From TrEMBL:
Domain of life of the organism encoding this protein: Bacteria
Ranges annotated as spanning the membrane: 12-34, 54-72, 79-98, 104-122
Entry protein name: DoxX family protein
Keyword terms, alphabetized: Membrane, Transmembrane, Transmembrane helix
Amino acid sequence: MQADKKMRWSVHILRTLFGAWNLFFGLVFFFEFIPQPMGHGEMTPYLNQTLIDTHLFHVVKVIEIIVGILLLTNRAVPLALCVYFPVTVVIYIVNMYLEEFAAGPFIAIIYLAVHLFLFWAYRSYYLPMLAWRAEINPFKSQKD
């Protein structure tokens, strides 16, 4: 019972922090509360500027805002985590291998670990997707 309560609180806290982080940095891009971090590595400012110039950064930031809101409001969390995972992988790669400041790998590992922990916590929603052989039957419910 105690372990279940700790797990629920851990998920709630990490989901809320992850959602707030994404919402904040999504909004920062559009409203410039603080300057957009462009990176500290040799290549990261070029990468980020290219993403901005091609408007791909805009797409990522809109996704961050939507995912942040969904996580904060505890709505469609499994879907939000799936949609956001490619962004998490890119953030991990950039911070782990392209950033040249000491906190880069730390941020990369923590960010990926939180996302993977939340995946694990919501794993029951993903298990049906892992069917090795799936039959198409749109009229049959999974309970049948």
